[in-house]
């Protein structure tokens, strides 16, 4: 063949290309599938970079994000898990596993000489059918707040049961539900702050209404303030000394230096006075505050907090209803934040500043305690998953049962569709239903159960009308998901179904992979 590409560029055609994409995608799915379900295991990710950071995690998206992958198809799967994480927060593993299973089934069909486009058409029909099956079966308890709250609790517990928090899942589910109920339907998780403090055990974690800033209160300043008016600022409060670096001042005597310093001090004093003129009793600054202005603030009885981290500041402004100010010339235009009480609290060894009774009732802080950083990081990720799912559920209140139940419901309907559909598409539709059943199979496998036996029992159960059967990994048998209180959010399941189908479709369409050689750099250097 005449050379079409430059050196080092390679192309894979037809069968070879399909092999590469499928193998890549399926192996990624196999990588994360052991983390699926309540008995899923965790992975340790160790980076070989500086610091050799170690992450212990069960979250599909986190695992895939940290992998550096060469295979193009695998990258598509990594992407969908990322999107799933951003969209709904949970189901990151299921998405990848489902897409992997769809491809595995498609591979078998292609072996029997069915064209990929036919398979895609079948998958499309099947996905549509599965989605309708789900929305028909979804329950909606929006009208009954009590029931809805218990739904939320169940969803939180189901989400957490596959994570590190599964031991104290009731405790954490309560925390998550309380925090989300506070949001009153907004999916903005900014106003829930999570603070991690090593020490204690996971059980010592608690939810605190109000806002906690991870800072100590300065020296000689009021330790508690009631009815605080807070000015949140991002401004330099360090101009009372001459900056040594970069400033060249020529003077002919020492006295002149003193004059300059005096002038600087005056400037600082004016600035502080301007700030005090806002009628505040708490000043939070993102940059540092030198000891001179700090003294001035302390004399005025104002609590000055310096070096608050940026997230903290933005969130504090949001929560107290203030805005971040950087100039203080016209006090009218600056919005101050308010809260009922500011005081110092101790968590473990550390002192923190606690703002309670804030303007936005929806703000709260969850303080996580745990044995080590790794435990805390993973706990934060798990809690974040739960919070995302809950806030999505508050908006779209439809709820499904969990434990492989939705997959079986979908599989049953998809199977029926396959029987009705003439032509080769029906094979693809059948394959789709097999792929859906792989999820309960894997949940059972991870628990070390006899999956084939269990799944056939499940299928038999589901052929009765309105069955609630799912995999009960605790007893290792088919159980009633409603009694066990295992529920999932409709939104999450729907997102899993649709993204997985689309990703599989995309990879199926591939028939050629062209890898381009990187451009050489030497030529440019030579000129």
TrEMBL record:
InterPro entries: Chap_CCT_beta (IPR012716), Chaperone_TCP-1 (IPR017998), Chaperonin_TCP-1_CS (IPR002194), Cpn60/GroEL/TCP-1 (IPR002423), GroEL-like_apical_dom_sf (IPR027409), GROEL-like_equatorial_sf (IPR027413), TCP-1-like_intermed_sf (IPR027410), TCP-1_chaperonin (IPR053374). CDD domains: TCP1_beta (cd03336). It is found in: Cytoplasm. GO terms for cellular component: chaperonin-containing T-complex. Pfam families: Cpn60_TCP1. GO terms for molecular function: ATP binding; ATP hydrolysis activity; ATP-dependent protein folding chaperone; unfolded protein binding. Keywords: ATP-binding, Chaperone, Cytoplasm, Nucleotide-binding. It comes from the Eukaryota. SUPFAM superfamilies: GroEL apical domain-like, GroEL equatorial domain-like, GroEL-intermediate domain like. The keyword Chaperone applies. NCBIfam families: chap_CCT_beta (TIGR02341), thermosome_alpha (NF041082), thermosome_beta (NF041083). Molecular chaperone; assists the folding of proteins upon ATP hydrolysis. Known to play a role, in vitro, in the folding of actin and tubulin. Belongs to the TCP-1 chaperonin family. This is CCT-beta.
